Amino acid sequence: MNERAKQMNEETEIEVLRLLDKAGIGYDIIHHEEAFSMEICERIEKTLGAPVCKNLFLCNRQQTDFYLLMIPGKKIFKTKYLSSQLSCARLSFAGEEAMQSLLHIKPGSVSPMGLMYDTENKVRLVIDRDLMSDEEFGCHPCVNTATLKIQMKDFIEKFLPAVHHDCTIVDLPDVEKESHGSESEMKVISVVAAVILKDGQVFSTQRGYGDWAGWWEFPGGKIEPGEKPEDALVREIKEELATEIAVDRFICTVEHDYPTFHLTMHNYMCHVMDGDLKLLEHKDARWLDLDQMDDVKWLPADKKIIGTLREILSSRSKDSQD
Which three-class secondary structure state does DSSP give residue 239? Predict the structure, then answer.
């Protein structure tokens, strides 16, 4: 970080702390390296002595309605559950330009403290009820080289009135818990996965949440009751990647035992019909060549079909050469 950036961070932090003091809000603050990983956040939580909440800046497709969502740091976020509770169209992550203009923050520094800059109330604050049960929580003072610890009661009763905002409480399901079976009987989960091909490359996505955060997979999701696998796959890709796909053919079914559930994964070869494969729920994505398949850390179940994919891609390459 250059000197100018450090100076701007210090100025922003001072503005936030000045507002907290004026509102009569007590706080603790620690300074640390830039927090861009879960490992750093876990160390911060341990030092701070309070859970650090996850803050997500969202918007509708037209980028006319903006939302700041606060949820527990380790809770998985699925946009479809939030959209249904807010009775609004599908939400996705807002861009850096809107983040800067409305909240005066940059990616990696998203914080409810940024509401002090939203003087026209263009951002709607949404809080998951599970977070409300915490007496204290941690958040950045609009810069990710420091973290505050404040009382939830003070945040609701003092901070929000001071910045002229209110909040909407939602009950988002704990997706991770729902996927776990009981101790006495392992739950069986049936999912579909899309092997999206283009110009001899395979589309892969990286998880940004849960026990398997950072691992790579083929996009897809659960099959709803009464739903055909192909229909489930089209729906999931539209929800996760805002993209319409066509399912070309069935590849194989993988069976795998995870520690708390058994996974049955039906894999299909697909291609994009319409859309840009926008990341709504994943951390990252890559198009992989045949010789790059081992460059990422695959989820155990997904790794089982790599050999089959190599054969398919290799065969296609030979056919195109002939």
Answer: helix
